[in-house]
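User: Please predict structures.

Assistant: First:
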Amino acid sequence: MPYHAATAAPPETSTPSKTAKPTIVLVHGAWADSSSWTPVTLALQTAGYTVLVPPNPLRGLSNDSAYLSAFLQQATNGPVVLVGHSYGGAVISNAALTDPDVAALVYVDAFVPDVGESVGQIVAGSTSALNVPDPTTVFSFVAYPDAPAGDLDAYLKPTAFETLFAADVAKPITRALGASQKPITLSALGEPATSAAWKTLPSWYVVGTADLVLPQAKQLEMATRAKSTVTEVKASHLSMIAKPLAVTGVIVTAANSASPRR
């Protein structure tokens, strides 16, 4: 779907607050970068929201969460809605309670680990298309400087990116996203969560029913555990690109419904 198609403002899904609109912080996941949020960013900005899309380092859950925490403390003022895609869901869950201004969580095809649980464990316990006997059929592994022993950066191979990760996205966009993907370290996928903000904060979950990376059943399992308000969309793992207005509508609902903790 061309990015410009998402510029129309979505309808307000509940009565707007009389106070200032919260800042929306969008956090990308593995094998993506901040540009993966462009359609949603455009729609939210058109609707009058301040939107921030910081980079996610993808170096390790504790490292990535600390980066997000520092970003929130220095770059935001007032209520915040945190939105995480894929691995970004684990990051927002781990970081959210460090900032009392975070009022709500939105998960988009996202991992929602409990304390002590890792993204890798969640994938291993699912029917993900990334669960293959030979990981080199879907991943390219690259050594990075000063890596811990045995750690590598993992990239999705072009065929896996197009057919598994972004199966319903227009091919020119898919190829561009695949070329600009950020790798994630193998150690990040195995690092357990130390916080589960969804136990404290209200949450919403957008389930991609055609997701091959994080299957629908596993998404629903995590959303149910988190007591999230669920919206299902017919989309691949990149729901925010395939169905940007649906995703934007859920974020607007969260923004209108959540109350600051301060």
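Second:
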Amino acid sequence: MIRMKIEVEPERSYRLLYPRQIVLVGCCSPDGKPNALTIAWSMPLSMSPPLVGISVSPKRYSHSLIERTGDFTVNIPTMDILEKVHVFGTVSGRNVDKFASLGLTAEKARAVKSPIVRECVAHLECRLTESLTTGDHTLFIGEVVAAYADDRFFRNGKFDPRIFRGIYQVGGADYTTLSGETTGVGKY
């Protein structure tokens, strides 16, 4: 049976690519003050060299920090800290110390200036190699210079998000896991 398909406005077509894995992008000011941003638009771009991309609006405070320091971290959170991760994406580090106010820990990274988020289960440390303006966002391309993960979840060369309850955004303030657990955290 062929189902009828509804029209989706081009401005909302990105939602057809959901759910998207949520990450916390660590960055810092030139004087070392840590900050982080919640994003759903991240992706691997190349294996050799290892490149990842993150899409950030120039309106975000973190955008200017990444441009100025030339690096960032990608941190993989779990559903255990979902509410904090959600709030990280709704307040600006320009006015608030997100780490202090939300009770997450900015920890020194191994190879870059930007912090990792201790409570996350995996971390990619990236040096900024290129920035591309893509409409109303900037695609920051980073070369992965260090990566590490909790050994409970990275086995035989594979990372299993079903076990660690990775966060996937369905849209707005609605989230799910790959095991089907679904929740909302209020307003988006």
